[in-house]
């Protein structure tokens, strides 16, 4: 087995096991059930927002230290945070304990950046597209198994909502232990670069002075630290400025952040909406819906990878995404404007399938306009921007300081949020098209005059 493939498989096992969380499709049912004395209003306004804000704040910190700590400690942290979260869900009952575990849920989600970027420091650049697809496929597979398992356990009455948490806790313990066995990262993209790789060719020596500086050896430890950190920060800035001075990267990164923020918000509170539509369902099909959504999202993501290629012009891609974004908004309206829980399920599945396609296209467009080494950096920044947008949505739509809308009102806002994104990007595409046509006409006139 080739070394890069072996490392990819080891990481994918972690991602797969971590995603087997059969309690998640029913977490709202569990928290609002007889095991805790928590109201729906407390859950929406005092508990879930803590996770959103915690994720945002901790992602800034995680983003800064992931490369410096060489990824693996943060992956172990993901597993440890999972163990803490589900232990507290099982063995605590107070509102305060829920808020504390939401803080750790922020850690759990923020540290996910390390899972996605670890592989870039361990394999050669030519394998980046393959290992990226592997890591995402592993997570899709885990979610699919999770949804099927939870639905079977509930339908066959083998477990109740609380007992599902024991399965999740077990998988998080396994994931944490597995993370300890992941290969160490000897070099990273910024703070621990490999000098030999840089010095291998005359061209590299001439163009990679910043990277060389990061590996200058010094007897004095303080000087060595400075010679590592300062050039690394310069290289970070160089990659950042190269990426975000490219109009195409900015355009697609903004779409990625807006789309991801909307998806997070829609999926985060969906169980609360279903509880509003059907307070006491005979059978809650949340697990089955999650399984179907995951399968369709995986298929549409693969379809996007095959259908979308370098021959498709960015303008055409933006037009397609504008249309699909509007359809995402329409599917959310189906979720919240119906009194039939099954139509709401259908709307959410359609939304998830469309999102799987659009986020893959956006990611591909960002990637093809980047230097390969800056994938992880730009991914992290775009994720951070998405969390900023999600936090703003939470403050404006959900919190007491904002409009404090009921679930149906919240989802109506989210629907028109996606429709507004579609309109904005449609206008930008049309404006760019008209500008280019005018420029081409002016050029033709100039040529004719000459």
Strands, helices and their partners?
Blueprint: H1 3-18, H2 27-31, H3 40-65, H4 72-91, H5 95-110, H6 112-122, H7 128-155, H8 161-180, H9 195-198, H10 202-207, H11 209-213, H12 221-244, H13 247-277, H14 286-307, H15 314-336, H16 341-368, H17 375-398, H18 407-449
Helix pairs in contact: 1-7, 1-8, 3-5, 3-17, 4-5, 4-6, 4-8, 6-7, 6-17, 7-14, 13-15, 13-16, 13-17, 13-18, 14-16, 15-16, 15-18
Keywords: Folate-binding, Glycoprotein, Membrane, Transmembrane, Transmembrane helix, Transport
Organism: Drosophila grimshawi (Hawaiian fruit fly)
Subcellular location: Membrane
**Over the alpha carbons, how many angstroms does the gyration radius reach?**
23 Å
Q: Could you list the spans in which at least 5 consecutive residues all have pLDDT below 50? A: 196-219
The count of helical stretches stands at 18
Which percent bin holds the helix content?
over 70%
Q: Main sheet, how many strands, which sense, barrel?
A: none
Compute the separation of the termini in Å.
64 Å
Which structural class matches the secondary elements? mainly alpha
- How much strand? under 5%
CATH topology group of the largest domain: Growth Hormone, Chain: A
H/E element sequence: HHHHHHHHHHHHHHHHHH
In CATH, what is the class of the largest domain? Mainly Alpha
Shape: globular
Mean of residue pLDDT?
85
